[in-house]
């Protein structure tokens, strides 16, 4: 024996590793599986950071035409919406235009979605206003609203960028779709109700930042106090819906006008703003008061072009003040954009890269802070318009950016006369598209009633509290439901059904032969999944078959353990007659029947000798779960007063196989010859445990631990001689076993596992 071999043997003894063991997957195998060519993967990683390089070289005139039409169309909608959403964020309208330009222009370089339009959105604008309100209430006017909003954009964008670079986009998947829909519905109602006072001119009579229900009540209360603004806002809102529904009906009745109706419908915001601006100019230009005020609320001066472009001013004290506000802002950027981009990718037949989309959002907001932009993310309404306008590539965003620049440098004088009530009408009309439709809500209920409850909780909390509490409710409810589903999986005890069908036999190819096969179905047939008249045969006597429907991990392993034990004690009898055992010799926690009075119901029950576990749905297993399997084996062998075989079917993960072998399963060793703890929480004592002996003497004729180990057949031993597969082993066409013969208790399918358990009945 060489020195190295000696070191390995000593090391194995120190850590308690077995001298011989079936070959299992190693950590090095996992590391090698991560990348077959690290250099190529690194190059591919950096290439994927700039997706536009993959399509810009193939750009053509056909794509250009579609992108110009879509880009200009979205731009005509984005300009009034950008100024409107800046109003929600309690910022001057030009900051909405800054965010609009940076969003659409920068995103095109990093996008994996051709349809998504980045820029100011209602929910993020409302959250920005909330953050500004919190900071100013604590620190006064130490920082301007614009500086607070720009700092939020820079920090939240940097965080999202880091998540994307580290490829942690999968974290977004922990928030379910109904939770996101509930939060979006609640936020949309919050925004719409919050704009009603501006629409009616009563915004100065009460707190419009209160809870949604309070704002609605106060709006109705002060309705008689509405000002002249209502004469501009209410007709504008009615006209927006009239155009939408009227042109839609026209297109349905006269298909030849469908294309014209489409563009007129989607440009209705711009038309309404233009008409209102012209009307406001005609009405207000001669009615300016001596103090410089006008009869209605209008935007007034909008600075021309980009102002103060350069490095953002980041105050450390402001960063400290924003620590508690950033999580919500970051989450909104994540979930809203990913939800929208996935939705349009699904509808239009392509797949987005969530990590790259997060990088795009992060870069957009980080760079946007240099233009005094506030946080922006994907817009559902503008993305839908972009998709319907025939967009071909993300380059459409560049043409949208040109429209915004033209508005910034050429139309700011006209923006002076835009009525604020008209912008509120545009906002209300836009955000109501985010409210879940009754059919959508009913689908949540049909698919999963629990997720419908999550949707309803997110809506109610957002409406009756704040959007922060609403989003936290959505996240916490999603996480709680996930944990409950993991901790309380739906496993089933199985029985057998024989299926016969006339047709060509798989084995002999004869026409008209009857194909007979066994299928294993739940003994409990509740839920209307199977035919209620179907006859399900119980498993062979003394055998229990259990199918997992979830990974076997620490949250659910104890419950599954107890379910199998209770089922075994219900269907099988003790291996030892306890009626002849004195009360003083019985364990305190399992007294059994009264002395001298055997249970007559036990006489007809078999003794448990095998447990078959279907692992075909198990993708993960951990130390706690393996320990619970060891406990299960010990408890069942104590109940049966003999060795109980554990057979496993459908193990396809090498790591599950490795974990089970580490727990002493699969190789045929008797449970009494193995440690009762595979990974003790408290380190075991150096001295062996001693006492007067086992609680129960060995059953008459039962082998001792030493006899158990010596009595292992060649098939069960771990020596150099490889065991031969049994007659029921699954083999390939070349007569080679599918599952290693070194682990005879691991089987490829459930039928083979059950037949093997029947053969080895003792």
UniProtKB/TrEMBL annotation:
Domain of life (superkingdom): Eukaryota
UniProt cross-references to Gene3D superfamilies, sorted A to Z: STAS domain
Topology versus the membrane: Multi-pass membrane protein
Protein localization: Membrane
Region feature Disordered, mapped onto this chain: 574-604, 682-734
Record field: compositional bias (Basic and acidic residues): 574-588
STAS domain segment(s): 541-665
GO molecular function, one term: secondary active sulfate transmembrane transporter activity
Function: High affinity uptake of sulfate into the cell.
NCBIfam families, alphabetized: sulP (TIGR00815)
Natural source organism: Calocera cornea HHB12733
Gene Ontology process terms (BP): sulfate import across plasma membrane
UniProt keyword list: Membrane, Transmembrane, Transmembrane helix, Transport
A Pfam match: Sulfate_transp
Protein's recorded name: Putative sulfate permease
């Amino acid at each position: 024996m060489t020195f190295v071999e000696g070191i390995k043997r000593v090391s194995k003894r120190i850590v308690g590793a077995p001298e011989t063991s079936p070959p299992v997957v190693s950590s090095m195998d996992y590391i090698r599986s991560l990348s077959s060519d690290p250099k190529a993967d690194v190059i591919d990683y950096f290439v994927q950071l700039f997706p536009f390089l993959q399509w810009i070289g193939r750009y053509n005139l056909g794509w250009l035409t579609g992108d110009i039409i879509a880009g200009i169309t979205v731009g005509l909608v984005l300009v009034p919406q950008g100024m409107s959403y800046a109003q929600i964020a309690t910022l001057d309208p030009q900051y909405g235009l800054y965010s609009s330009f940076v969003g659409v222009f920068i995103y095109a370089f990093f996008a994996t979605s051709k349809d998504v339009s980045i820029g100011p959105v209602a929910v993020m604008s409302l959250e920005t206003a909330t953050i500004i309100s919190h900071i100013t209430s604590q620190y006064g006017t130490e920082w301007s609203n614009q500086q607070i909003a720009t700092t939020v954009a820079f920090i939240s964008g940097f965080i999202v960028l880091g998540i994307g670079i580290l490829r942690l986009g999968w974290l977004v998947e922990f928030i379910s779709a109904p939770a996101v829909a509930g939060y979006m519905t609640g936020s949309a109602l919050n925004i719409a109700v919050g704009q009603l006072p501006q629409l009616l001119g009563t915004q100065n009579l009460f707190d419009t930042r209160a809870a949604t229900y309070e704002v609605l009540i106060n709006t109705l209360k002060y309705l008689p106090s509405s000002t002249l603004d209502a004469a501009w806002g209410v007709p504008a809102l009615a006209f927006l819906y009239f155009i939408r529904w009227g042109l839609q009906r026209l297109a349905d009745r006269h298909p030849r006008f469908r294309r014209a109706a489409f563009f007129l419908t989607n440009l209705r915001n711009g038309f309404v703003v233009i008409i209102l601006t012209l009307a406001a100019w005609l009405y207000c230009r001669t009615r300016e008061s001596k103090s410089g005020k006008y009869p209605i609320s209008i935007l007034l001066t909008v600075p021309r072009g980009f102002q103060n472009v350069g490095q953002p001013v980041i105050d450390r004290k402001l960063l400290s003040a924003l620590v508690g506000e950033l999580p919500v802002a970051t989450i909104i950027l994540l979930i809203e954009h990913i939800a929208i981009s996935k939705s349009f990718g699904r509808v239009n037949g392509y797949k987005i890269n969530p990590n790259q989309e997060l990088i795009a959002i992060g870069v957009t907001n980080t760079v946007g802070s240099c233009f005094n932009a506030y946080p922006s993310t994907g817009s559902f309404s503008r993305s839908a318009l972009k998709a319907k306008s025939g967009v071909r590539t993300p380059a459409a965003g560049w043409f949208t950016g040109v429209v915004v620049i033209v508005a910034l440098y050429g139309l700011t004088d006209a923006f002076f006369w835009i009525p604020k009530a008209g912008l509120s009408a545009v906002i209300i009309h836009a955000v109501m598209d985010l409210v879940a439709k009754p059919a959508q809500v009913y689908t949540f209920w049909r698919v999963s009633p629990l997720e419908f409850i999550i949707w309803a909780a997110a809506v109610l909390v957002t409406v009756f509290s704040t959007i922060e509490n609403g989003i936290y409710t959505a996240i916490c409810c999603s996480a709680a439901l996930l944990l409950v589903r993991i901790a309380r999986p739906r496993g089933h005890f199985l029985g057998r059904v024989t299926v016969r069908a006339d047709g060509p036999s798989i084995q002999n190819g004869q026409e008209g032969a009857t194909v007979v096969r066994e299928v294993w179905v739940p003994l409990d047939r509740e839920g209307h999944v199977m035919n209620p008249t179907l006859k399900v045969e119980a498993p062979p006597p003394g055998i229990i078959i259990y199918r997992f429907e979830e990974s076997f991990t620490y949250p659910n392993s104890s419950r599954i353990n107890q379910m199998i034990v209770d089922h075994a004690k219900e269907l099988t009898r003790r291996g030892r007659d306890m009626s002849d055992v004195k009360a003083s010799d019985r364990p305190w926690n399992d007294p059994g029947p009264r002395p001298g009075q055997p249970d007559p119901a036990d006489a007809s029950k078999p003794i448990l000798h095998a447990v078959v576990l279907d692992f075909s749905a198990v993708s993960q297993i951990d130390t706690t779960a393996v320990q619970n399997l060891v406990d299960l084996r010990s408890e069942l062998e104590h109940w049966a007063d003999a060795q109980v075989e554990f057979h496993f079917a459908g193990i396809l993960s090498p790591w599950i196989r490795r974990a089970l072998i580490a727990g002493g399963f699969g190789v045929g060793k008797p449970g009494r010859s193995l440690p009762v703890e595979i990974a003790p929480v408290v380190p075991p004592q150096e001295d062996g445990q001693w006492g007067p002996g086992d609680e129960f003497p060995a059953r008459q004729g039962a082998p001792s631990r030493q006899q158990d180990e010596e009595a292992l057949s060649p098939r069960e031993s771990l020596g150099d001689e490889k065991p031969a597969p049994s007659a029921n082993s699954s083999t390939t066409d070349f007569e080679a076993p599918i599952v290693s013969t070194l682990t005879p208790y691991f089987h490829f399918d459930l039928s083979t596992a059950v037949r093997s358990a029947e053969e080895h009945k003792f």
